[in-house]
Amino acid sequence: MPKGSDLLVAALENEGVEYIFGIPGEENLDVLESLRQSSIKLVVTRHEQAAGFMAATYGRLTGRAGVCLTTLGPGALNLTTSAAYAHLGAMPMVMITGQKAIRSSRQAHFQIVDIVATMRPLTKQATQIASARSIPTHVREAFRLAEQERPGPVHLELPEDIAQEGAEATLVPPHPVDLPVARSGAIDRAAALIAGAKAPLVMLGAAASRPHLADPLSAFVRRMGIPFFNTQMGKGAVHGGSNLYIGTAALSERDWVHRAVDQADLIISIGHDTVEKPPFLMGARGPQVVHVGATPATVEQVYFPEAEIIGDVGASLALLADRLEGQLPNASALLHMREGILARLADRAEEDRFPITPQRFVHDVRSVIPPDGIVALDNGMFKIWFARNYRTHVANTLLLDNALATMGAGLPSAIAACLLNPQQRVLAVCGDGGFMMNAQEMETAVRLGLNLVVAVLEDNAYGMIRWKQEVDGFPDFGLRFENPDFVAYAEAYGAKGARVSSARDLATTLEAAFSRGGVHLVAVPMDYSENMKVLVDELRGVQPAEA
Question: What one-character-per-residue DSSP string does 293-344 give?
Fold first, then answer.
């Protein structure tokens, strides 16, 4: 008779699980033994938080739930940031944590924390498995919930006595679930608003970046002929080289792309999720907004659409394009602004200053990353520069977090991207502060034999907060630190290390790292004085464009 841990692993195989990321404990030993005999690869990490980031990124890139595993108590609590990362970022993930025996315990309350209660606010569902026979149904329901719109994390707690319990149970086969297409009345209302618009725009939000939407969204934009912009997490949902792309809303207002937003009288907002910092601020006299999504809009002070198309996004947009294709004489009314907006973003991108400016760093990264290469960003000042200046060509090739916006996720996310895309170039971009929060995963990358380049941007400070401190007029205080020798640090793990010593060395150093293969760390001294010059002083002078 199989035991509970055998049923768990069989149920995970039934879901098509390839990897489990995590750190097992003594409460997981039966699961560990069942995994040893399975087709699933266990990726042992050096911190549970990193395991959660890897599982969430697996879900983000595939649309299928990534899986992570920890023990009880302290190990499970280390998943809370990862749970919030997946919850706010809408990334499907299943977290499995251990627990002491629930039917009899000889250890009283040693290490016991109510993890299920802790996880409930951070997940779509958190459940303790109380019977081995129920494991297959619990697992099927966890994956169904994690993957259905809006995706997110689900938590299962497996006590050690339930993992050891013998039981017979039948696996529950997964099946596809198709969303309904929006009702014709909703499409009629939206089509009437769009047809009457004098200066329409399309905006692509976080939910537009679901892996299955790249083709239908690209087709919709092409058929409508309306220029588009995107939020930070919507970046790359449609080909970034399209002649209809007019920029990314890295800020909420007063950036160059907002000159076009200010002139729009209607915005077709596809997949906007209000967990992101607002890409524009709705007001009493702003444009009308048509919300398109698998789920209804969340009404906020700065986002309150006049019409909604709710249902299968790809199929619904195809019906909308059927109504309007070739019938929008004003579709390209704002397209004339594109060249000026993009030219502004290219300003000073090839300056030879050292330490290196953010514009030069983004420019040179784009020059060494092929169209299908992946850049995984940690959270820091550089994220705004990548959102504004980096041109994407393939969906989900710029991974950034504009929801929880946590530090420490860049390196683990890049590791997951490498496992899924071993033939593609993958670059992790981390600030020196964020890198050190999960720097131990360099060992994981080396142990897995990955081809990965990690760029660590050095400014010896928590740079984004220091910038905000300066913008708000506060004295420079409390945000500086010292760094280790990052080249020696990388080499201590068996990786290769290099330090950029001039602007002209940047692209050649990155190219050499990719060409050699293996794990490389490239330390890049940064000059963030451009933050104030460009993002504050220059943009203060940006006036709304004349109609």
Answer: ESSPPPPBTTB--SEEEES-HHHHHHHHHHHHTT--TTTTTTGGGHHHHHHH
Please check the confidence at residue 546 and state whether its pLDDT lies above 70.
Answer: no
Mean pLDDT of 485-507: 97
348-535: CATH topology is: Rossmann fold (3.40.50)
Cβ atoms within 10 Å of 97's Cβ, excluding its own: 30
What span, in angstroms and rounded, lies between the C-alpha atoms of 446 and 62? Answer: 24
Q: Using alpha carbons, select from 96, 101, 108 the residue that is nearest to residue 130.
A: 101
Mean pLDDT estimate for the chain? 94
- Please tell me the predicted confidence (pLDDT) of residue 254: 86
Q: Does domain 184-341 have CATH number 3.40.50.1220?
A: yes
Secondary structure (3-state) at 50: helix
Where along the chain do its domains lie? 4-164, 184-341, 348-535
Q: Provide φ and ψ at 415, rounded to 5°.
A: -60, -45
Helix (H, G, I), strand (E, B) or coil at 154: strand
Is residue 547 over pLDDT 60? no
Packing angle of the helix pair 184-195, 313-324 (nearest 10 deg): 50
Indicate if the alpha-carbon torsion angle 268, 270, 274, 280 is positive or negative.
negative
Backbone angles phi, psi at 168, to 5 degrees: -105, 135
pLDDT tens digits, 1-22: 899 999 999 999 999 999 999 9
Q: How many residues are present in the chain?
A: 547
Looking at domain 4-164, its CATH superfamily turns out to be Thiamin diphosphate (ThDP)-binding fold, Pyr/PP domains (3.40.50.970)
What's the rounded Cα separation, in Å, for the pair 481 and 519? Answer: 26
